[in-house]
């Protein structure tokens, strides 16, 4: 027991202490400077934010849906809504009276006349999607109206208002993107001068704005006036063409050669026919009238004749 007691009395405190540096004073005395250890310092939240979020674990704000919601929404995301169910939901929510832009813009008649049937059908499909988006925005707006109209318990309603407002604004942005997509799919097929005009027209009840025909007529009138005011140089008369001009010589193809061609050409050459001897009667028949017939006195020659 005395040995253990002695060890307890001689034990040294090994707890971490602050580092010290010694400096000598003028009189030879040493001064100890205390250096704080950085591991023990805990930074405030403001300093942590100023240093940045690099290297820190990311925080997730994802929520866990109720099981009933998760099942139904997953089925719709995978298979879509039944057509009858979708139409019934859309009919339940009419467009707000003071927000007519939630009605999908119509295609201008002047533009539809210049499009093909397939382009018109494609535009109508996107317009149908905007009708569904408008109904979704209206449902959120109806709930927001109820929350804003009851100012009691603002501490509870403010987070709900913020959440629903965020959802409505995102849907409105998708609605606007669909309108821009409809215009971008139509404009490349139109006249270049009209294209510049239609890109600047604001969206209204119609896809390319109201009174489009009046604007088109104004552009045509301005263009016509510009052509009339434009100084066009006089045309230089063309020189008359030389009627005795001979065209380029025809290029003659080389004549085919070879053993077969030689045999063919030889076969086409007609051989001279042998003269046949004529009898005296035939010869006399072919003699010209008035010609003198000379009869030789030699019997041999007369026989040959």
Question: What's the short story on this structure?
Answer:
Helices cover 52% and strands 4% of the residues.
Strand order of the largest sheet: 1-2
Helix content: 40-55%
Enumerate the spans where pLDDT stays under 50 for 5 or more consecutive residues.
1-8, 10-20
User: For this entry, what is the oligomeric state of its chains?
Assistant: single chain
**Main sheet characteristics:** 2 strands, antiparallel
Region (Disordered): 15-34, 226-305
Biased composition (Basic and acidic residues): 20-32
Biased composition (Basic residues): 272-289
What descriptive keywords fit this protein?
mainly alpha, two-stranded antiparallel sheet, 305 residues, elongated, disordered N terminus
Structure notes:
Residues 15-34, 226-305 are annotated as: Disordered. Residues 20-32 have a biased composition (Basic and acidic residues). This protein has 305 residues and is mainly alpha-helical. It has a domain at 83-225. It contains twelve helices and two strands, in the order H-E-E-H-H-H-H-H-H-H-H-H-H-H. Strands 1-2 form a two-stranded antiparallel sheet. Helix 4 (83-92) packs across helix 6, helix 6 packs antiparallel against helix 7 (154-186) and helix 8 packs across helix 9. The longest helix is centred in the middle third of the chain and has 33 residues, at 117-149. The relative contact order is 0.05.
């Amino acid at each position: 027991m005395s040995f253990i007691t002695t060890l307890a009395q001689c034990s040294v405190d090994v707890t971490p202490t602050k580092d010290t540096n010694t400096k000598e004073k003028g009189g030879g005395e040493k001064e100890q400077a205390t250096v704080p250890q950085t591991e023990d310092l805990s930074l405030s939240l403001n300093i942590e934010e100023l240093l940045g979020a690099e290297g820190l674990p990311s925080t997730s704000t994802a929520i866990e849906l109720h099981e009933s919601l998760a099942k139904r929404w997953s089925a719709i995301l995978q298979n879509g809504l039944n057509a009858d169910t979708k139409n019934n939901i859309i009919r339940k929510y009419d467009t707000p009276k003071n927000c007519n832009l939630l009605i999908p813009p119509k295609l201008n008649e002047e533009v539809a006349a210049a499009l093909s049937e397939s382009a018109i059908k494609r535009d109508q499909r996107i317009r149908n999607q905007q009708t569904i988006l408008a109904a979704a925005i209206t449902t959120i707006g109806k709930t927001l109206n109820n929350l804003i109209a009851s100012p009691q318990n603002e501490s509870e309603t403010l987070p709900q208002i913020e959440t629903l407002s965020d959802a409505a604004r995102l849907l409105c942005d998708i609605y606007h993107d669909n309108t821009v997509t409809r215009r971008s799919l139509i404009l490349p097929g139109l006249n270049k001068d009209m294209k510049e005009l239609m890109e600047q027209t604001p969206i209204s009840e119609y896809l390319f704005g109201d009174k489009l025909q009046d604007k088109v007529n104004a552009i045509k009138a301005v263009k016509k006036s510009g052509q009339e005011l434009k100084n066009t140089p006089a045309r230089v008369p063309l020189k008359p063409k030389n009627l005795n001009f001979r065209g380029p010589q025809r290029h003659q193809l080389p004549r085919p050669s070879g053993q077969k061609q030689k045999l063919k050409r030889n076969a086409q050459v007609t051989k001279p026919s042998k003269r046949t001897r004529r009898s005296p009667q035939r010869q006399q028949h072919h003699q010209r009238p008035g010609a003198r017939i000379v009869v030789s006195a030699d019997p041999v020659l007369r026989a040959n004749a």
